[in-house]
Amino acid sequence: MVTDTRSISIEDRNTLLVVTTLIVAVTFQAALNPPGGVWQDDKYDLKENCTDVPWSTANKCTVIARAGTGVLHSRAKIRYDTFIFVNTMAFSAATIGAVQPQTPKTWAIILGALFAPYIFRLFADIKSRCK
Predict the structure, then answer these.
(1) What region does 100 belong to: left with phi over 0, alpha with psi -120 to 50, or beta?
(2) Residue 115 included in any domain
(3) Nearest 10 degrees: CA dihedral of 39, 41, 42, 44?
(4) CA distances in angstroms from 58 to 31, 50, 53, 61, 105, listed in the order given
(5) Looking at the whole model, is its pTM more than 0.70?
(6) What's the CA gap between 110 and 121, in Å, rounded?
(7) Selection from 97, 102, 37 nearest residue 65 by Cα
(8) How many CB atoms lie within 10 A of CB 70?
(9) Which domain holds residue 35?
(10) What is the pLDDT of residues 96-107, one digit of tens each?
(11) Is residue 117 in some structural domain?
(12) How many CB atoms lie within 10 A of CB 91?
């Protein structure tokens, strides 16, 4: 059933905007502070003797995790990628709900912009695996 967005009452529209704002805030915060947190420092392979300065060119240590990357990403990549995908979809759906596109062309543009990063990442992953 298609309803005209101009027939929505002011109270309903305000409620929609408040709920949308809360969803956007929560999903944005979840992206900044992912589950499991982020590595505070570079993590090196314990089997190697890493006494060199980390940024030295003579450093031959194997970096297991870089500072600032998600802990969950280094321990369970599929779960982390799933979380990021679902979180981004919720963020985008809430944002689209606030905008309420009126025409099919507008919907197509928004959906294209929504899926473009995932398509680019998919091709980048495929390219890196083929090397």
Answers:
(1) left
(2) no
(3) -100
(4) 35, 11, 8, 9, 55
(5) no
(6) 18
(7) 37
(8) 20
(9) 8-100
(10) 767 766 678 877
(11) no
(12) 19
Residue carrying structure tokens 């420092």 = 41
Q: Helix (H, G, I), strand (E, B), or coil: what is residue 101?
A: coil
81 neighbors 118 (Cβ within 8 angstroms): no
Q: What percent of the chain has pLDDT over 70?
A: 78
16 found inside a domain: yes
Quickly state the pLDDT bin for 1 (edges 50, 70, 90). Answer: very low
Pair of tokens at residue 72: 């969950």
Number of domain units in the chain: 1
Task: Give residues with Cβ within 8 angstroms of 84, minimum separation 6.
Answer: 31, 34
* Rounded Cα distance, 70 and 81, in Å: 11
